[in-house]
Structures are given as structure tokens and as C-alpha cells.
């Protein structure tokens, strides 16, 4: 049994998170139960991670079967399950090569190193700079905070890692002006997650591809949040038809088991030769077993159709919710089951009210609340989420109507 939530003043964990005062003890499908018995509809899914919800029987089977055989071997030996997962990911995408990691940030680190090494191996080590976009989030390692460019994550951690040039999102002139003889790559989230569910317009993504082709640059997509069915496509780049050279994935691919991957074309990966990169845990047999099990479900016929259909229903209801509560909700954003409610009132208040109504949602930048439910949600789950969102919107609205003196 999970113990009750720890009072933050008594915690010995680094106080880097403002944790909600609930401890989740177990889950089933789209539902979780806290240590006090309270049930929540989980529309956060561990920040877009539990793609198949909680306690999915196929994932439990894959993990426990693997756990009873062997947990860890290292990359010093052949990894049949990793080879299989890599091949399946390549067959289902633009990619021809894969490297497994333990997290999203590490997948991005691999992508950044690969883009730089590509040029170095071709005799151009001076081409190491990567252009990124305002509002981006690429992780919390030293290189990925520099790539994300958000000052609040950079300040106080010593000199910012060199080699990242940031331009405003969807600003063609600034982007063209930033490309120089040292540029190695352009790096973008096709839909910004932490940044507030901002979708890069298709024409902008097409322009990025054209610029990369013209200038010999690598195009890196960070699909850590958008990937593995989240947008109704296996990867969101399929929505635009613009394929990258390198793509970082994580979150949903492990369904809750920590893992990520860097996928690339043969050409983009050509500099990553023997000994150029490594990891102790990446590609671990437990992770590979779960990753393969996630693909069994996500790539099964009809699964992504389900995501698209349920997304459509949810959005229709959300549009009505916005119409009923224009003082609270101003806009519905996103794709598939990566949905953002842009608010007129503080998003953190809405997250608290939603939790009080028994619904878990996640705040994002630009005053957005994210709905990131497990991809297996039923029509009944979607309908129930709308009821609870309605309650949250009413509660927020009530605070607006209170006299200021109260
Ligand atoms: N990139 C994107 C788009 C993300 O959403 C995240 C995590 O939220 C990351 C990178 C970092 O992933 P991780 O926290 O697994 O290192």
C-alpha cells in the first residue's frame, strides 16, 4: 500500500517540484486511486506517458515475463528484443537507425550529438550550431536547457552550453537570417508541449525541410511528447508529410517504463560510428520488452483510428464547454489526444479545481491546461471528463463573480 502523501516540509527530496498533495496508489485504464481512496480520471497520464493507461494486461505480461528471465545485460552483448523494437520503429517511420535511451532529454542529447557529428565526419567540425525556437522545451540536461532556451531553466547553472541559436516560433525572416556557415541543424517540436500546445503550421514545417535541403542541414524533430499515437498518427510528422532526418522519442513508447530513442536516417547517423556514443541502461531488456508490447497495441489495425475518433468527440464537447464558459476558456488547441485549453484565468487554479472535481490535468506554458489522456480512453471516460471539466470551469467562474473584497 502506498503511504499517505508526505508533507513538503518533511520531505528530503529536492524541493524542485510543487507536488500536489495526493499519492497515487494504483490505476486501471484511465483511472487512478489515491492513498485516501479518492478516484481520479487521469487526463494527465504522467505527462503524456501512460499511452495505454494503467495496468494494461499486455504490458504487465510483457514486463513480468521479461522480469522473470533477465533484467539487465548492458550493451556489451547482442540485444535481440532491442533489435526487434528498433526494426519495428524503423519500418513504421522514415528512420533507418535507432539508439535507445532512458529519457527524453537523453534522446535529444543523442540527436544533438548526431547532427554535430554528421558534419564533423564530413570534414566540417565548424558546423555545430543548432537553431531552435522560442517556447521550446527539450529537457533538463545542460545541453537541452540551452536548446530550449528558457532563461528560468538556464540561470545559475554556469555558462550556457554553446551552439544554440534561438529564433521566434514561425518567424521565417528570423530563421533565414540565423542560418550561417556554422549551422548544423534545425530542431523543433512539431507541436510545442510544455510551451502551450502551439502547433507549427504545415507551411512552416515544409519551409524547414526546404531550408535544410538547400543548406545541407539536419532537420531534428523532438516528438517526445507528440509521438506514439498521441496526435492520432503514429508520429505527428505524418500530419504534415514533412519527415525529419533525426527524431527524438520517449514518453509513450515505454507506456510508463522509462525509455526513449533517437531515430535517424542512415545518412544522418553516418557519423555515429563505433565508440562515439553509449549508455549503460539504454536498451535494457525490461524497457525493450515493454516497448515492443506498446507497439503491439498502438500499431494494431484500428488503434489510431480510435484515437482520432475519440479526439473528435472530445473536441466537439470542448468547443461547447468553451462557448458556455468564455470568461474561463478562450481557445482549444492541439491534435488528437494532445489537447490544450487556453485560459483567460490562471491555469494553475483550473488544475486545482479539476483535481477537486476528480480529474487530473496538467498545466503548460502560455496559460494553457493540457488534456493528455491515455490513448485507450472510452467514450464514457471522455463524457465523464467533460462533466468534471464543466464543474472545474464553474468553480473558477464562481471565483470571478465574487466581490473583490471577499
Ligand atoms: N522534449 C519534450 C518535447 C518534452 O515534452 C520533454 C518532457 O516533457 C522532454 C523533451 C524531456 O523529456 P524527459 O523529461 O524524459 O527527459
Uncertain spans, ≥5 residues at pLDDT below 50? Answer: none
Instruction: Summarize the amount of helix as a percent range.
Output: 25-40%
Q: How many whole angstroms does the radius of gyration measure?
A: 21 Å
Q: Report strand %.
A: 15-25%
Briefly characterize the structure:
The chain has 406 residues and is α/β, with parallel strands linked by helices. Helix content is 37%, strand content 18%. The model has no long low-confidence stretch (mean pLDDT 97).
Keywords:
406 residues; alpha/beta; 4-stranded mixed beta sheet; 13 helices; binds pyridoxal-5'-phosphate
What does this structure look like?
- The structure is a single chain.
- The protein has 406 residues and is an alpha/beta fold.
- It is built from 13 helices and 17 strands.
- The chain has helices at 45-48, 57-69, 80-91, 104-121, 142-148, 151-154, 172-178, 202-215, 237-240, 285-298, 303-324, 347-356, 379-401; strands at residues 24-28, 31-34, 39-42, 97-101, 129-133, 164-167, 183-188, 191-192, 198-199, 218-222, 246-249, 260-264, 329-335, 338-343, 359-360, 362-364, 368-371.
- A 7-stranded mixed beta sheet has the order 4-12-11-10-7-5-6, with helices on both faces.
- A hairpin with a 3-residue loop joins strand 16 (362-364) and strand 17.
- The radius of gyration is 21 Å and the shape is globular.
- Residues 47, 103-105, 108, 137-139, 189, 193-194, 222, 224-225, 250 line the site of pyridoxal-5'-phosphate.
- Pyridoxal-5'-phosphate is lined by residues 47, 103-105, 108, 137-139, 189, 193-194, 222, 224-225, 250.
Amino acid at each position: 500500500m502506498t503511504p499517505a502523501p508526505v508533507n513538503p516540509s518533511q520531505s528530503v527530496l529536492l524541493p524542485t517540484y510543487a507536488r500536489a498533495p495526493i499519492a497515487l496508489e494504483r490505476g486501471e485504464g484511465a483511472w487512478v486511486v489515491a492513498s485516501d481512496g479518492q478516484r481520479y480520471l487521469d487526463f494527465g497520464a504522467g505527462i503524456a506517458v501512460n499511452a495505454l493507461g494503467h495496468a494494461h494486461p499486455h504490458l504487465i505480461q510483457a514486463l513480468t515475463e521479461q522480469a522473470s528471465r533477465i533484467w539487465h545485460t548492458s550493451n556489451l552483448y547482442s540485444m535481440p528484443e532491442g533489435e526487434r523494437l528498433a526494426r519495428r520503429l524503423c519500418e513504421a517511420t522514415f528512420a533507418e537507425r535507432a539508439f535507445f535511451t532512458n529519457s527524453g532529454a537523453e534522446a535529444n542529447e543523442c540527436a544533438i550529438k548526431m547532427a554535430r557529428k554528421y558534419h564533423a565526419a564530413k570534414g566540417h567540425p565548424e558546423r555545430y550550431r543548432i537553431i531552435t525556437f522560442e517556447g521550446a522545451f527539450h529537457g533538463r540536461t545542460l545541453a537541452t536547457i540551452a536548446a530550449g532556451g528558457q532563461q528560468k531553466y538556464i540561470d545559475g547553472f554556469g555558462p550556457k552550453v554553446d551552439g544554440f541559436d534561438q529564433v521566434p516560433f514561425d518567424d521565417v525572416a528570423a530563421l533565414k537570417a540565423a542560418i550561417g556557415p556554422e549551422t548544423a541543424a534545425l530542431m523543433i517540436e512539431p507541436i510545442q508541449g510544455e510551451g502551450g500546445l502551439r502547433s507549427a503550421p504545415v507551411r512552416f514545417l515544409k519551409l524547414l525541410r526546404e531550408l535544410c535541403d538547400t543548406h545541407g542541414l539536419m532537420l531534428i524533430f523532438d516528438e517526445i511528447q507528440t509521438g506514439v499515437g498521441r496526435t492520432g498518427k503514429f508520429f505527428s510528422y505524418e500530419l504534415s508529410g514533412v519527415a525529419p532526418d533525426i527524431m527524438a522519442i520517449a514518453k509513450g513508447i515505454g507506456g510508463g517504463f522509462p525509455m526513449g530513442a533517437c531515430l535517424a536516417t542512415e545518412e544522418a547517423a553516418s557519423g555515429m560510428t563505433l565508440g562515439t556514443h553509449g549508455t549503460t541502461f539504454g536498451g535494457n531488456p525490461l524497457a525493450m520488452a515493454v516497448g515492443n508490447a506498446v507497439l503491439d497495441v498502438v500499431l494494431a489495425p484500428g488503434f489510431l483510428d480510435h484515437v482520432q475518433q475519440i479526439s473528435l468527440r472530445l473536441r466537439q464537447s470542448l468547443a461547447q464547454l468553451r462557448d458556455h464558459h468564455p470568461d474561463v476558456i478562450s481557445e482549444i488547441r492541439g491534435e488528437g489526444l494532445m489537447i490544450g485549453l487556453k485560459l483567460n484565468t490562471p491555469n494553475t487554479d483550473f488544475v486545482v479545481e479539476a483535481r477537486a472535481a476528480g480529474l487530473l490535468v496538467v498545466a503548460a506554458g502560455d496559460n494553457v491546461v493540457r488534456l493528455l489522456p491515455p490513448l485507450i480512453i472510452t467514450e464514457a471516460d471522455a463524457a465523464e471528463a467533460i462533466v468534471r471539466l464543466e464543474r472545474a470551469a464553474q468553480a473558477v467562474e464562481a471565483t470571478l463573480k465574487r466581490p473583490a473584497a471577499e
